[in-house]
Design goal:
Helix content is about 45%, strand content about 10%. The chain is an alpha+beta fold. Strands 2-1-3-4 form a four-stranded mixed sheet, covered by helices on one side.
């Protein structure tokens, strides 16, 4: 497979926001993201994996985000913790709609889904990427929608949507929430690309 050419270099990367600065500019959505960041800690096993010296090849991480996106609020804090755990990884956050030349390289079935996290080596070769949310969370979301919004009459759509959002938010509470599967998926991407044992290989 040919190496994807991404329009990035040190100068452009430097214009991105650090994770701290990204949260600082969020306005009325800041508290929600900061709360999720405080809760989105890695387990000892996860932290040990991401501190593997082999992951020192990951020099840069680019996150595409927007303040209004619920999946960004839920998933970007966990992605930030992953970047912080890696020994040499520097994270910068870019706004999706202001960087469409990068965004459109990472479409999700034709959609500009966010967050997107892309990992690069020191020469800006892509090591791997991850988009939007864990597949387990998507499956749960679709199942909830099928039982609420999709079956509600036209005059009850507003109430059904509110109920769907309530139940979907509840999915993200607790240590066994499907949103944490994002860690496993990112881990799998990096392990595969860097020639490490996949997470399940030790079973």
């Amino acid at each position: 497979m040919a190496q994807l050419t991404v329009p990035l270099d040190a100068a452009r990367f430097g214009k991105g926001l650090s994770w701290k600065d990204y949260m600082a500019q969020m306005g009325d959505t800041r508290a929600r993201t900061e709360d999720n960041y405080g809760k989105a800690t890695l387990t000892d096993d996860e932290r040990s994996f991401f501190k593997n010296p082999a992951l020192g090849k990951v020099k840069y991480a680019v996150m595409l985000a927007e303040n209004w996106c619920g999946d960004v609020h839920r998933n970007s804090p966990l992605l930030a913790h992953i970047c912080e755990a890696m020994p040499n990884c520097e994270l910068r956050v870019f706004f999706r709609d202001q960087n469409l030349d990068i965004t459109d390289l990472y479409l999700n079935n034709g959609y500009r889904s966010i967050p997107v996290i892309v990992f690069f080596d020191q020469n800006w070769n892509e090591i791997g990427h991850w988009i939007e949310r864990a597949s387990a969370a998507t499956q749960k979301m679709m199942a909830l929608r099928a039982k609420t919004v999709d079956v509600a009459p036209a005059d009850q759509q507003e109430a059904a949507t509110a109920e769907f959002r309530k139940q979907y938010q509840a999915l993200h509470e607790g240590p066994n929430s499907p949103w944490r599967e994002a860690v496993k998926e990112v881990r799998q991407v990096l392990a595969t690309r860097l020639g490490l044992l996949p997470p399940d290989a030790k079973k």
